[in-house]
Amino acid sequence: MKKYICETCGVQYSSSIEAPKQCLICEEERQFVSSKGQVWTTLEKLIKVGTYSNIIELQEEGLHSIKTNPSFGIGQSSYLVKDRHYNLLWDCITYIDPSTISHINKLGGIDAIALSHPHYYSSQVEWAEAFDAPIYIHEDDKEWVTRPSEKIIFWSGESKELQEGLILHRIGGHCKGGTVLEWKNGSSQNGILLSGDIIRVAADCKWVSFMYSYPNFIPLPSVTVERIADRVKKFTFHRLYDAFHRIIKDEADLVVNRSAKRYIEALNGTLFNS
Predict the structure, then answer these.
(1) How far is CA 174 from CA 87, 215, 249, in A?
(2) All domains in the chain, ordered by first residue
(3) Tens digit of each residue's pLDDT (9 = 90 or more) over 179-210
(4) What is the pLDDT of residue 273?
(5) What is the pTM of this model?
(6) 98/256 Cα distance (integer angstroms)
């Protein structure tokens, strides 16, 4: 019995004798099956090959990024938020090994894990078991869990405060249960928003965007983006980190607002003539 991992998206499945016939995540229209076909691996194989390691870097006070090198799966980063004796892992990556566990334990371990959306579920249960931590997933994305576990807590509603100043918000868009993390105490109490790719930072780090599917270039409707922007206006943050280590360092709240306005104008045909 093996816990197979899809090499394209990096999501781990429950134990089975044979590899699944298809990946639930990649077969769906927001993702894709690799041009070389469906390929599977296991965490044990990834560790044994000796190619991969996790780079854990301090980004600013209380915030570390965690990224696998060389890139695996979708290639996202996770973030360890250290807030008032409470350590939260925001989003997951597939690769985890004894060196990673040791390093994070020196930083105080992990008290809880929270996910933005299914593309980053990766090997979340491995992480939860390694650190004896609960996993918080919005119930609207329950159907995409490929490895069930008693560690998973499906929360409901529009917001969930994990502790004072550390709040999960379901804003939807990219996925029905799409969630962002408002960290009010981050950046010297100016606030940090960790957005996964529910809100994605553009290449110049001066704009953001919102998409139903990034690899398949499927936009969100303007009414959805308007709703997201209205929700985000109520959050406290001036800095934003996305899943691919792009950062808006200042006035990120204003950047999100003007980006939503530009996006809506583009969809409605008032931004440009062509």
Answers:
(1) 26, 12, 23
(2) 2-267 (3.60.15.10)
(3) 999 999 999 999 999 999 999 999 999 999 99
(4) 80
(5) 0.96
(6) 38
- Hey, what are 93's tokens? 């990556």
Q: Closest Cα partner for 254 from 269, 235, 272, 273? A: 235
Rg of the chain over all Cα atoms, to the nearest angstrom: 18
Residue 272 has pLDDT above 90, yes or no: no
Question: Would strands 166-170 and 159-163 be described as parallel, antiparallel, or unpaired?
Answer: antiparallel
Taking residues 59-81, report their average pLDDT.
Answer: 98
